[in-house]
Amino acid sequence: MRYPAAIERLIEHFMRFPGIGRKTAERYAFHVVHHVDAETATDFGTALRRAVDDVKPCVTCGFLTDKTTCDICKNPDRERRKILVVEESKDAIVIEKSAIHDGLYHVLNGVISPSDGVGPEDLNLKALLERLKDPDVEEVILAMNFSEEGETTAMYIDRLLENSGLLVTRIAYGMPAGGNIGYADALTLAKALEGRKKY
To answer: Of 193, 195, 129, 127, whose CA–CA distance to 161 is shortest?
Structure first.
């Protein structure tokens, strides 16, 4: 026995989202059928359509915005000497919420991953190199995730900029606050030791 065609289509659409398998998609579909009224469904459809139609990368930094240039790039109070490079817009949001960076951002919209067919030309690198021609920029902070792809991307950018005269730094990795050495993997411990400083 199969579900009605409308429910099957809904399940198929939910399964297109990352991390959503058949069972979760079915649960979402049944929630919609049993708990979502027509007005809420219309509002959801409108929000979805507006996100697709209106949200685009900032022409300067690549951060998602519903304007041509995002609010951070337009903010005259930001420290323009530092550009922090991240993989995705969500990474910039996490850092911004922590209030630890007062400079600008640059979003690559991905990482170099040959196994997935993603090369440097697929990333938002050309715009980054263009921004770095600005004489006000002094430091590029690489904040890729601590993964094989993130490390590859960081090393690639570092090599691109080795003769630029810019200070290129990489965010530190190691043991988290409250972390237990007994549960740390070898790579985390190696980075923790590399990043050690005088006590």
So the answer is: 129
Distance CA 161, CA 155 (A): 10
Tokens 């490390």: give the residue: 151
Domain enclosing residue 27, as ranges: 5-54
Q: Which two tokens stand for residue 168?
A: 């290129």
160 and 89 inside one domain: yes
Q: Looking at the 3D structure of the chain, how many domains does it have?
A: 2
In this prediction the pTM is 0.81
**Strand, coil or helix: 195:** coil
- For residue 59, which of 141, 134, 128 has the smallest C-alpha distance? 128
User: Which region holds residue 165: left if phi is over 0, alpha if psi is between -120 and 50, else beta?
Assistant: left
Rounded-to-integer distance, Cα 104 and Cα 172, Å? 19
Read off the pLDDT of residues 81-117 as tens digits, 9 standing for 90 and up: 999 999 999 999 999 998 889 999 999 999 999 999 9
In a domain, 84, yes or no: yes
* One domain, residues 24 and 105: no
| 9, 25 Cβ separation under 8 angstroms | no
> Which residue's structure tokens are 């490079």?
85
Integer Cα distance of 86 and 28 in angstroms:
32
